[in-house]
# Entry
Amino acid sequence: MTYCCGVLVRDGLVLIADTRTNAGLDNISTFRKLHIFEEPGHHVLGLATAGNLSVSQSVVSMLHEGVEDHEMGERRQLRDCRTMFQAAQLVGIAIRQVHRVNGPFMEQSNVSFDVSFLLGGQIAGDSLRLYMVYSAGNFIECTQDTPFLQIGEHKYGKPVLDRAVNYDMEISEALKSSLISMDSTMRSNLGVGLPIDVMVVTPDTLRSELIYRIEPGEPYFHDLRERWSAALRSAHASIPKPPYLKNARPRAVNDI
Amino acid sequence: MTYCCGVLVRDGLVLIADTRTNAGLDNISTFRKLHIFEEPGHHVLGLATAGNLSVSQSVVSMLHEGVEDHEMGERRQLRDCRTMFQAAQLVGIAIRQVHRVNGPFMEQSNVSFDVSFLLGGQIAGDSLRLYMVYSAGNFIECTQDTPFLQIGEHKYGKPVLDRAVNYDMEISEALKSSLISMDSTMRSNLGVGLPIDVMVVTPDTLRSELIYRIEPGEPYFHDLRERWSAALRSAHASIPKPPYLKNARPRAVNDI
# Structure
């Protein structure tokens, strides 16, 4: 499994991804899933991947080598895209080409062509944007109403984001929220694990603000996990007990 | 969708279930999913259901009317079971009979035979137990190591339980935890909604301690949701900001 999360606030973009891959629980490895495409002053892009590793790696390689664009009759890389919309389209084209070549054989082996991407960043002349690209190559863009997107094992870490994230929060708060979301996911799903890759981009700088790998034992993240656990325990304790069980018996029966 | 959760601690058993069913997002209804089988002094059982409503309702009806047990050559109800293990077996037999009759036709219509149950309670002579029964009729029993079981849309509400629940907690704390878990699920998934049915059984009383329906607007649950949100916000705020972005630029690059 995988968990990747992108948060796009007024103040900037956060992309985080874990690094655990597994083919069954007895075959666990570490692979980078957050890929950086950066030419300062020209473009700064992060691509987080989830799903079948052979598919996502092929897509990333094609984006590096250039994707044959049959409609345009040319081979294009991400650096050739003039807008983020074009970059998301190019990721979609690469997915479809991998599907054309490998999809039928994967189906024969009962391996589903399952992949998804978060593409975030900025290209000179366009604004800072965040997209989620599906395995069919179609995609959606993140908007201010719900300023985050998730791929992979997204459910465990969603309640935290639903409550905490809004478009007007500081970028460091957005990063903190995404790390808490990652922590919730790691606690409940063994398929998601450290190290965690983090990328931060602020608007109109056209360079990454931060590219960082959180390794096991890293002091801040360790502290965040401990504090969050303690805070949840005390939050739990601070809520009054349900009044339904006041004196245990006689029973409070209002419905059967 | 559905979310049901059972917590079994030393102090007793909590079973909770939402009441929302849907056939597509445009067809939402309210159905009771927590079914009570109680003869004080003899047995007290709660059966929470998730999955295809036609299947779960058929199973519940068969358990009321009596399940034809071909191996034993007799028709049996839950009241005829002398142990909780036998009761879980009977639920499994009922599921298999519904599958035999309806499964092939559901498959023809591309409707999956998808159902699961939480069966908890006590039968005179046995102890208070909690089981999860799968659509194949097989089942697992809840143990002290992980004193809760979930069915339906279980992921959103699992982090809260993973952190909060332990076998030695008071029954009222267990009830509170399950309600917070339900709240997390309802916030992130529209397919889970109020009212919520609650059942509490304490050991060796052989009667329900509480059977209660939490309706929309019920003061305690409303207050719990508000307090939990506020506590999470303040927990979030109490964690220091990530140090990675100290001065924004120059970049901290330790890995690319």
Summary: Confidence is low (pLDDT under 50) at residues 248-256 of chain A. Residues 12 and 202 of chain A are 4 Å apart (CA to CA). Residues 84-108 of chain A form the longest helix (25 residues). The two ends of chain A are 42 Å apart (CA to CA).
